[in-house]
Amino acid sequence: MNILRNKAALAGIFVALVLCGHHDSRAADAAPEPNRYAAAIAPAERFEVGGVLVERHGSGGRPLILIPGLASGSWVWQETIRAFAPDHAVYVLTLPGFDGRPPAGPAPFAAARAAVEELIAKRHLDKPVIVGHSLGGILALAVAEDKPSAPGGIVSIDGLPVMPGTEDMTPMQRAQFADKMRLQVGSQPPDRFAQQQQAYMRTIGVMDMSQADALARLTAKSDPKSVGAWAADVLTLDLRPGLKTIQAPVLAIVPYLDLDSAQQGLTPAAKADYYRALMEGTPKLQVVTVAPSRHFAMFDQPQAVVAAIRTFLGTL
């Protein structure tokens, strides 16, 4: 128990960095070059459900729904689309307020939760596998709790049912923390928000600094107020009581990088155990570690992530 509390304390530092950011004096002043990660694969169709942009690639096979994380767009999933669109219908979502989309309304998480469920119902998707990164993984778990018989599988890449570091907070403490994050993130002017995104990508996002800067320019296209609202919604959540209702198999992908974790005494096995502890009660849970990788494992280890998803699909 003491070990888990220590891990939670370390994770609390992670929460502060993710949601608040910090100034990085290394922010580049030069005009950015064309962003190689912004070139999206043309979808077969594009439509909206409840304010959520949906892009479909491919057809047939078991449907996949890909949900990016905080301040991210469909560019997160380009390698995943290339890997699975030849054999599957792949539905890629962009959430309100992110990647240049119109700002999110009130309670964005609840609205997106309903939109994903509406997408499954309206498109008559048969046992789709919902793959989510970070916030997207949390959203996938929420849908699996709401509609236990709808999804055929859940893949959550570094997304957990409760924000690490807040698992022992009371609902009131969590709400107070969420209000603080909403204000701190949402009130940033565009230039400060862009600096925060670069700092985040360089310290937590990905391993390669040139890649980090390119990705930060994409996340900086998001609306700060919307990002603050989404962050606050996630901080108030605790989906752990409903995990026992999930019927679909769940794959949790855990990124691990020695540079970030070993100095804190957090081994790959220890980090995986911490994630298992937060997912306790999930009936059909698999945990896979991807290393070396930071939060955006799809960029640090794209082949390993695709392989983990493909192996998981083979078990369904």
Protein model, in words:
- The protein is an alpha/beta fold.
- It has one domain: 3-Layer(aba) Sandwich (Rossmann fold), CATH 3.40.50.
- The protein contains twelve helices and eight strands.
- Strand 1 and strand 2 form a beta hairpin.
- The longest helix is centred in the N-terminal third of the chain and has 19 residues, at 2-20.
List the helices and strands and how they pair.
Layout: H1 2-20, E1 45-49, E2 52-57, E3 64-67, H2 78-84, E4 90-94, H3 108-122, E5 129-133, H4 135-146, E6 153-157, H5 171-186, H6 190-205, H7 209-219, H8 224-236, E7 250-255, H9 258-261, H10 268-278, E8 285-290, H11 297-300, H12 302-314
Parallel strand pairs: 3-4, 3-5, 5-6, 6-7, 7-8
Antiparallel strand pairs: 1-2, 2-4
Helix pairs in contact: 3-4, 5-8, 6-7
CATH architecture classification? 3-Layer(aba) Sandwich
The major sheet is characterized as: 8 strands, mixed
Question: What's the arrangement of strands in the largest beta sheet?
Answer: 1-2-4-3-5-6-7-8
Helix content: 40-55%
Structural class: alpha/beta
The CATH topology = Rossmann fold
**Roughly what fraction of the amino acids lie in strands?**
5-15%
The first-to-last residue Cα distance is 34 Å
Number of strands: 8
Rounded radius of gyration (Å) = 18 Å
The residue-averaged pLDDT reads: 90
The CATH first-level class comes to Alpha Beta
The number of domains is 1
Task: Give me the strand/helix succession.
Answer: HEEEHEHEHEHHHHEHHEHH
Sum up the overall morphology in one term: globular
Low-confidence stretches: 1-30
The CATH superfamily is Alpha/Beta hydrolase fold, catalytic domain
Helical run tally:
12
For this structure, the quaternary state is: single chain
